[in-house]
């Protein structure tokens, strides 16, 4: 089997989970490969996400590793069999891979939780807001790539249009709502957009006002995507080298607790809506 030139984050995650099963069983790659009728080099490629694995072999692997977690095994089998080529594929070779990995993660998520302190969450941004964000940092992007990034960001809202929309929660600091990345009109349109999207079923928006006491979470921005089982949850954070996908259990526990803390510091959805509505009147 030809190795993948660039596995997606989803493919890498599947391989990493298979590696965890093997490690938990105390087996070497060579030992497990022998039981599966392959070789250690191929086993390493599978665990790195560079090679695929069929559902039958995956279930045999889980059995040899004495994994009795049926929900996890079924979830991994779903990752193997679901080869969806979504709308984001039209941007392959046009945008950096991290953009496409995020779209694929969102498409398969069971829920999404966002925390933003400085910027409006990407899923809630208007075209003008997104264009202003992508235009700001030097060096200036070529026009074609700038428009591709904006189009991709707008396309990500497809998770709200699915037959079973992804449940979405956002905690946004007042700073992100007040900072004018564009002009006054663009800021008003952005607030109206948040209000309109918050009317959708399954969409919850909460605001942390400036006058909230004891708020020291300025560095708490995150995207939290729920997997089919909690072990397959993922946290996405921006890093200097690009987008970082975090999935270690200790990291997931930390960000789950952090989200609950930030949620507790925010206004309830009704009061948050009133808060944003008042802001539109000020513009």
Structural class: alpha/beta
* DSSP strand content: 5-15%
Low-confidence stretches: none
Please tell me how large the radius of gyration is. 21 Å
Shape: elongated
Order of helices and strands: HHHHHHEHHEHHEEEEHH
Query: Could you estimate the helical fraction of the residues in percent?
Result: 40-55%
Please tally the helical runs, counting DSSP H or I stretches of 4 or more residues: 12
**Strand order, sheet with most strands:** 3-2-1-4-5-6
Oligomer: single chain
Describe the protein:
By secondary structure, this protein is α/β, with parallel strands linked by helices. The protein has helices at about 10-25, 30-35, 40-45, 55-65, 70-80, 95-110, 125-135, 145-155, 175-180, 185-200, 250-265, 270-280; strands spanning about 110-115, 165-175, 205-210, 220-225, 235-240, 240-245. Strand 5 and strand 6 (about 240-245) form a beta hairpin. Helix 4 (about 55-65) runs antiparallel to helix 5 (about 70-80) and helix 7 (about 125-135) packs across helix 8 (about 145-155). The mean pLDDT is about 95.
């Amino acid at each position: 089997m030809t190795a993948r030139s660039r596995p997606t984050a989803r493919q890498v995650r599947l391989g990493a989970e298979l590696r965890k099963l093997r490690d938990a069983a105390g087996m070497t790659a060579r030992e497990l490969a022998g039981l599966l009728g392959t070789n250690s080099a191929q086993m390493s490629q599978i665990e790195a996400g560079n090679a695929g694995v069929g559902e039958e072999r995956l279930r045999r692997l889980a059995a040899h590793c004495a994994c009795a977690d049926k929900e996890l095994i079924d979830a991994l089998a779903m990752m193997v069999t679901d080869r969806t080529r979504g709308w984001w594929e039209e941007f392959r070779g046009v945008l950096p891979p991290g953009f496409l990995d995020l779209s694929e993660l969102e498409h398969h998520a069971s829920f999404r939780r966002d925390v933003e302190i400085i910027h409006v969450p990407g899923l809630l941004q208007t075209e003008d807001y997104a264009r202003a964000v992508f235009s700001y940092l030097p060096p200036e992007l070529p026009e074609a790539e700038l428009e591709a990034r904006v189009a991709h960001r707008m396309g990500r809202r497809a998770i709200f249009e699915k037959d079973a929309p992804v449940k979405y929660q956002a905690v946004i600091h007042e700073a992100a709502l007040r900072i004018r990345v564009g002009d006054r009109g663009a800021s008003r349109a952005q607030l109206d957009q948040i209000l309109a999207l918050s009317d959708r079923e399954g969409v919850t928006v909460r605001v942390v006002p400036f006058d909230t006491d004891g708020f020291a979470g300025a560095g708490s921005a995150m995207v939290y995507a729920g997997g089919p089982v909690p072990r397959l949850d993922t946290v996405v954070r921006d890093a200097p080298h690009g987008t970082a996908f975090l999935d270690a259990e200790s990291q997931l526990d930390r960000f789950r607790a952090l989200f609950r803390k930030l949620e507790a510091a925010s206004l309830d959805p009704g009061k948050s809506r009133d808060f944003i509505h008042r802001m539109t009147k000020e513009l």
